[in-house]
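so my prof wants the structure for this chain in the tokens format not the other one, which i didnt know existed until like an hour ago. anyway here's the sequence
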Amino acid sequence: MFLAGLILLAFLWMRGAVRPTRQEWRNLALLGWLMFVVDYGALFWAEKYVPSGIAAVLSATVPLMTIAFEMFLFRLQPFRWSLVAAVLLGFGGVGILMLPDPRQKLPLIPCVAILLGTAGWCLGTVLSRKLVLPASRPVTAGGSMMIGGATLLLVSGAFGELHPWPHISRNAVLALAYLILLGSVLAFTAYVWLLGRMPASKVASYAYVNPVVAVALGYFAAGEPITAHVMAGAAMVLVSVYLILRRGRKAA
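here's what i got, hopefully its the right format
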């Protein structure tokens, strides 16, 4: 992520992009810490203990938390009982996922960490529409990625997780290059660009498909179990997100 931000900023500045002001750098740092350090740091740690499918379902609360921030904290959306009901349905699904299941025991603290990290991403998403940021959305994406990635590297080093480069395999290098270029430079820049043109709750709808893909991959590729407990909670989360997006399309 640090490299993705650095590459993107270097490319933009070579093409004459305006450098951020001091205030804009402070706001970019806030976004980088919320959206990457808080979210990614918590998620990557928790995935050591939580199956990827469950982690994806918990992370699918992005639209729910985003609309909750927009409606209750920042007053960017009018209060509507239908939206409140949809949000409560989604959080009810999360509650079911976190209830004890004799066939699949989920550690509580890592699950809570994923939810707190997701809240950080959602708060950063909503704040990106309120803070003073560079006029260029790619500069905003590059600056926040660079600062967030640099902070994550420092935290990783402090916990002894950085390993010498000779131990990185060829496949790992290729995977890292893919994540830098497509997963970060392209995808996050598109995400920030959309935030400047659409409501945050609609942009956050990308999380709608993540759980389906992750649960399927976890089952077929990693042998992770799919229980009725998981299916019920996941269904409530996905129906909740669908109702929110459906309501948003009608309002538009």
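also thought this was worth mentioning. The chain has a mean pLDDT of 82.
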